[in-house]
Each structure stands twice: as structure tokens, then as C-alpha cells.
Amino acid sequence: MPDEEIAEEGVLTPLDTPVQDPLLREILAENQAAATPQEQSQPTPTKQEEVDCVVIGLGAGGAPLLARLAQAGLKVVALEAGPWHDPTKDFATDEKAQNFLFWNDERLAAGGNPLAMGRNNSGTGVGGSTLHYTAYTPRPLPDDLTLKRDFGQGEDWPLTYDELAPYYEEVEQFLGVSGPTPYPWGPARPKGYVLPPLPLNSAAQLMVRGAEKLGIRTSPAANAALSAPYFQEGVGWRQACTNRGFCQAGCSNGAKSSMDVTYIPVAVKFGADIRPNSFVTEIERNAQGLVSAVVYTQNGQQHRQACRHLFLCGGAVETPRLLLLNNLGLTSGQVGRNLMAHTGIQVWGTFEEEVRPTKGIPGGLISQDTHRPQDADFVGGYLLQSIGVMPVTFASQAARGRKLWGQAMRDYMRQFNHVAGINILGDCLPHADNFMELSDELDARQLPKPRLHFTAQDNEVRMTAHAEKKMRAIWEAAGATDIWAFDRYAHVIGTARMGRSGDDAVVDRDGRAFDVPNLYISDNSTFPSALSVNPALTIMALSLRTADKFLARERRRDS
Amino acid sequence: MTFQELLPTSHLSEATRAELTQRLAATSQAAAYEPQFFAPETYQLFVAVAARLFPQPERPVPIPLIAAVDKRLAEGQSDGWRYDALPPDREAYRLGLGGIEQIAQALFQKNFEQLEPAQKDAVIESLASGNPPGEIWQSLKATRFFEEMLAELTENYYAHPWAQDEIGYVGYADLPSWVNIGLNQKDAREQ
């Protein structure tokens, strides 16, 4: 048998030889593409003993509720697709070395403004995207939740700011958010931030200088990184930030409040069973249509974990992908729809002074004066932020944005230490043309690659133009030359929206699926609108709220 | 301080030092690298294109940019996304490099590698302009291909310690902390 060899044990081992004939290869590839994964029946692994809850995904959506459920005494298992890292050993201060933190399974970016994924917005590992978030944690302002009421466009949240405020406070206090007290925008708060703001780096100082000349108020920003050592209940002492500036990758001393150094240690302390490298492929249901088990692959082995409740926390791409692959929770027709991405245009300039943009917390400064600009020709608004940057990321953006190459690129990058940036984080309206679907191209796991359609609509285009003008003016006032803009879109939001009715929403205000009573979703996919602030803080607040509502329901059922 | 001066110091964590030491070691090995994915002649063409995208006349051994791409494609690694308008990376690179030859032939009736530096740059300009001559570019979107290729090579270039010396970046030497982080402020090891 030329295609097989007999190993010593007498077991037939097929050789994995590549097909040489191009035509045959094409035919084989076509056949493979035609077979959907659901059709490839595999033997079912033995079911593991039923637990109260399975949580899929350990980022900002999964980790807080995992801790809450474990603290309540429930038997919980967490399945995380990526590994569990050791920050001191794994988090080198090198951009390329940190690529493993990003969700690198390929996704297809379609539409007029294709969304960059991976490094831009998608993480993997115990801690999820919080391992590489910049920890910028402003609260939304109350009217972020009422766009439709105020403008007749977009969507209202089925929750009010007052309902979320206690959860924002709890998350901020627990994580040790460093920020200004009192906070200059939004309603007065019962408690201030637990730590003073982190020191302003060069980019923040330049933004203060430019904004002052234009009469724009600024403030040191709220960041979930410690400006002083901090004792955290259930975790212990955490060290202060060393101004390493490498927050878009893993924090090596635990000063950044990613989930792996905050909620996850609490979950572990209370008995949560965390299974890293566990990629979920199937969600099983019983005769009543309730979720009964999940099938996942860990280190090449297939497992089947029975559960009474499932919490899906995979983010705005993997969560709808799992729902679509398993034909789960789809009756509203909204799964995959309403894909939104924050407007995130950056403006860069060159300064005479030495900036050295890699030091200090990247988003040191904030202004929310542009939350509802008086001269706006668009719905909603945005925040302004000073930004630090690492060299490989910056050079890559200069390549994509300015198409610099050859001597021109080398010359531009030689003055890297004189470059500083500002950007916006702005709202985005849902639109029928923007959605996520399963393509017919398979990834390395033999699952259909997600395809994300995104085209900036009138509102995003107008907001971006307004912001670019404003930021160019700030940078000119601050003394910048060679100013250029890099148009980009950040966090992916939507695709499994929450709402008041199963007719037009996937989950209710508690995160519970309308179609499947023991399925909850907790991540950025449930946001009905994008908000004009970074999403992580709200994801965590909603996560705790979902856990509380679930626990209250369970207690009522027991009594 | 330069990379060579900083590398052995306690300003680098063990993890950072290990990574950068390995990257430096790969530099001298690159000349002998045997492509795993590209055909040898395609690999040489790509190296010639890279030599114009990042000309390094001052260096006896240039920062290698293509071996890492070849390795990535051979292993089927991705950065998490691609433009839907482009075919999968392997196909895009094969087609795109073939397309660069077609531009060279259309403009100068020669292979890319036989061209004078200024002519090579004209070929790349033509590609970057988004509407180059050649049949391949009827189906492969030139602007997106150029952007993807340029971004990948740029990342490979500026991840290298020599390039980081060139731009005065010492952020990898981050221990124990950065104290002077404001405008015109430097810690001693940044001098």
C-alpha cells in the first residue's frame, strides 16, 4: 500500500501527503468546501457530569459573571478558546512576540470600510481581549442609551443609566480604576475613583496645550490600570503601573486590570473550573429545546460537558457564529445583524519637542466636550483621546494610511520620537447593510469563516469629518506639522442585540435569550447601540448584572 | 543607549531578551534560508521587491523581510483577517508577485530583477497607483494587495532591533519603570 505505512504497533497510519495534481487538488478542495461541518458526523464523546453553568469565553463578558456565579456557590465550568498565560514569562515587551494574544483565525472583511480584526479588536486567552485592551474605561453618558428617543434614529437601550450606574461603580472600585474625581462630564457620582489618575505623558500634555487654545475642556482619563499599589478583595496586592506604555499587549506586572488578574482569580478562589485551550464547536439541546451540553475540543481531544445553563461570552463575532452554526436563538432574525464599529479616526502630527510616544498609559487624556457638539450634522457624538503608540503598529499604519515606502518611509519613521496622536471614539448606528454571516470558506478548524460586512453610512462619515477637522485644529494649535489622518473603525459591536421583545431582539435586558430560556449572552454582541465610549466597562457591568438577574431568578425558582 | 548596549542589561525582562536575541540570530541565517512556500525564483523576485520597498544600502547584511513571510505562508498562519476582496494570502502573494513581473514586462519589457533601481521603483509606483498594466490586475485588486504586502514587510522591518535603533526606540528596555514620560523628558537609558 504505497499511501500508508505500517507502524511498529501494527496500526495503519495514513501518510498526509499533499496532492500534487492541480486538477485533483481543485476537485478535492471543492468537495471539502461543499460539506458543511454539521454534516460530518463524528462519534459523540461521553458526557461529563452536569454542572450548573458553563461559560464560553473569558473576556470582559465572561469573567465577571463567572466570578459572581462561583461566589454564589454554583458549580461552574469556563471554556476559553485560548491559553492561560503567565504574565512575567509570556508577556515580552515586543509587538511581534505578542501576536498570540489576538484572535488570529481568519475572518473576511467586506464592504466599503472593511473592518481590521485580529490586533485591532479581537483577543484570545484567559482574559480575552482585556489582555490587550488599553484599559481606557470612561462610562457612557446617560443619553448614550437613548439615541432613538433623542434623535429618532438608532436604538434605545432597554436599560437606563441609573440601572447600570451601581454596576459601573462596583466594577471601577473592584478593578482599581485610576481617574479624576469629580469626573467633569455626566451626572454626579456617589463615589469617586479609588485611585488618582495616571500621570500625563507627552501626547496628553500636547493635547492639553492644543485644546486649551481652542477652549475645549480636557481631563486626565479614567484607566483601569493602577496609579498606586492596590489591594483587591480575593486577589491580594497588585503593583502600580510602571509607565511601560505597552497596554495594547499583555501587561507584565499585572497593573493593568485585565480579567486574568482581577475577576478570574476570584472565580478560581470560589471553585470555578477553568479550562483553557477549549474551543466549543457544538451546543446540544434536549427535547424541550433547552441547552443541555456543549461539545468542545481541548488539545486535540473532544469533550462533552453537560450543563443546566449556558452563558455565551465569545464577543460580537464568535457568539453569533456559534448561534448560527448551531441554529440556536435565531427566530428574531437578528443574529449577525446590526454590526456596528466605533468611529475611531486618528490624527497624527510631528512636534519639535521630543515626544517618545511609547511611554505612559496610551490614553492619558480625555475630552467629552464633543459628546453632543452644537454644530453637529450627525446623530450622537464622540470622545477625544490622546494616544501613545508602539513603533510596529505605527509604522504599519503609516504604510496602510499614507502608503509610504522606500526612503520616504525610512525618513518618516526616523522622527518617530517626535510623533504624537489623538483619536476619537464615536457612536455608530446600526444599518441593514452591516452584518456578519458565515462564508463558505473554511478555516483551519474546518468551520466556516465569518464574513463581516461594514460600510460607514452617512452618519459615521459626517461624524468622522467633524472629528477630523476638530483634531487637526487641536494639533495645529499644539504646534504640530505634517499632520495626517488615519481613518479606522475600532471595536465590533452588535450582532445579537438585546431588546424588549423577541420579535426584534435576541436577548432581553437581562441577557437571557428569548428563544432558549437557559441561554444567556454576555458580551458586546448584545449592545443595541454602539455608545460613544469604549465598550469594556459596560460589558463588565452588564456581565455582573446578568449574573445577578440570573441568580435572583434561580432563587425564586428554588423558594 | 543602543540595542547592543541594552540587551545584556537588567532593563530587559528575560522574556523580552529571549525574543529579541532570537530575532537577531535569524538575521544572519536569512541568507541561507531555503523557501518553504515560494518557488526559489519567486522568492528571489520578492527579495528584490523588498529591497526597493526598504532600501538598506548602508547595511552589509540587510534586515531580512521575506523569510518570515515565506515561513508564515508555509505554516498557514494568519493575522486574524483579510480583505474579502483578496483571495487567501498564499494565492494573493503568488498572483501579486506574478503581477509585478507583468508590470515590469509591460513597462520595460524586462524581468523585474533585471531593471535599474529607478525602473523598479516605477514598477512599484505603478502598482501603488492602483491601476497597473497586466492581466493579473484585472482580477486581483492592486491597491489592497499593495497595502497588505507593504504592511507586512513594514512590520517585519520595524520589529527588528536594528530598525528600532534607527528610529531611537528603546521601549523594550522597560525595567524597572519609566519615570520621565513628559515632553522633552528622558530617562538615563534613553540618552
Automatic annotation (TrEMBL), chain A:
Residue ranges of domain Glucose-methanol-choline oxidoreductase N-terminal in the record: 123-343
Span of domain Glucose-methanol-choline oxidoreductase C-terminal: 430-542
InterPro entries from the UniProt entry: FAD/NAD-bd_sf, GMC_OxRdtase_N, GMC_OxRtase_C
GO function term, MF aspect, one: oxidoreductase activity, acting on CH-OH group of donors
Keywords (A to Z) from UniProt: FAD, Flavoprotein, Oxidoreductase
Classification via PANTHER family: LONG-CHAIN-ALCOHOL OXIDASE (PTHR46056:SF12)
Family: Belongs to the GMC oxidoreductase family.
Protein known as: GMC family oxidoreductase
Classification lineage: Bacteria, Pseudomonadati, Bacteroidota, Cytophagia, Cytophagales
From TrEMBL, chain B:
Pfam families: Gluconate_2-dh3 (PF13618)
InterPro entries hit by this protein: Gluconate_2DH_su3
Superkingdom in the source lineage: Bacteria
Full protein name: Gluconate 2-dehydrogenase subunit 3 family protein
Organism the protein comes from: Hymenobacter setariae
